[in-house]
Amino acid sequence: MKMMPFLKMPPKLPLYIIAVLIALCFFPFDLDADEVFYGPFFDAGHFGIFFLAAIALERANLFSTRPNAVKLFAPLFCLGAAIVLVELLQPLFGRTPSLTDIRNGFLGTLAGVLVCAAYVRGRRALICALFTAALLQLVLLNPAIAGFRAVRWRASAWPLLADFETPEQALLWAPIHYGNGFTEIRISSRQAADGRSSLAITGGGGTWRGAEYDAGERDWSKYGQLVLRAYNPHAHPLVLSLRIDDMRKDPSYTERFNKSITLTSHWNEIRIPMAEIFAGPHDGKLDLEHVKRLLFILPKDPAQLTIFVDRIELS
Ligand SMILES: [Ca+2]
Q1: If 251 and its partner were Cys, which of 70, 71, 108, 255 is the partner (CB 3.0–4.6 Å)?
Q2: What count of other Cβ atoms lies within 10 Å of the Cβ of residue 108?
Q3: What single DSSP character describes residue 79?
Q4: CATH assignment, 161-314
């Protein structure tokens, strides 16, 4: 088969391309603000990076005089070792290693090797291999697309933080628990302070459990208060804890805003002045220009219970 012009390159260029592609894995991207998008985006990116690296390695002709089995497996072995090494070294560059990255890197390498094998078999085989690789890359990008929708919703709804009326905002929330317990969160139509649904937070056991909202480092300082609605389905009062973090990493109890709120039966509207949140931490003030997380902690009660929260906004 006649070589396509775009695959013709000077002898050492493929090796430089591989070096640049692997260097991309170490670039210290700041993922904090829109991690719900960038996290899965860079996970999926490992597929594309090692797909291109596998093609570049084939173009480097390092194994062209070797037996067929070596030609096939040597790129898998070399890039496989690079994938694992990259993940082991990533923490040194402020990146987080993950098994998803390793899986996606291997899949990308495999797809690249298959495209190279298809290339010598003819145009139809090449088109099929490229189509399969593109499809796989799109499937792997799917969580990033969902994350992008969540980030876009957060920006467009601002200063509304949540109303639970649309599914994309669910990705901004995550269940949390510590110790032997469980937490489950879901958008529920059983209760609603506005619209038709709210967020049900169910937990039991453990030291503490609740739900966390990814506030995206947004600026709360221009607003007068945080307003939210919480529903207590029980006949007796419950104490819900609210926590707000700024950019401090793993803030201790004295470095964040903490407040206990007594919920009477049914819906409660809670208004917290921004000045109170600002002055909340015992150590310093809360950086209202960069709010990172909002957490609801369920009452310290070993029994399983559910509370609902709805329409959380700044005003
Ligand atoms: Ca609602």
Answers
A1: 255
A2: 27
A3: H
A4: 2.60.120.430
CA 281 to centroid of ligand 1, rounded, Å? 30
- Render pLDDT for 208-258 as a digit per residue (tens, 0 to 9): 899 999 999 999 999 999 999 999 999 999 999 999 999 988 899 999 999
Closest by Cα among 55, 38, 147 to 108: 55
Neighbouring residues of the ion ligand 1, judged by CB less than 5 Å: 163-164, 192, 194-195, 310
End-to-end CA distance of the chain: 66
Question: For residue 293, what are the contacts with CB-CB under 8 A and spacing of at least 6?
Answer: 212, 213, 214, 215, 243, 244, 245
Ligand 1 centre and the CA of 311: distance in Å? 6
Q: What tokens were used for 161?
A: 């933080």
pTM of the model: 0.82
CB-based contacts of 103, cutoff 8 Å, min separation 6: none
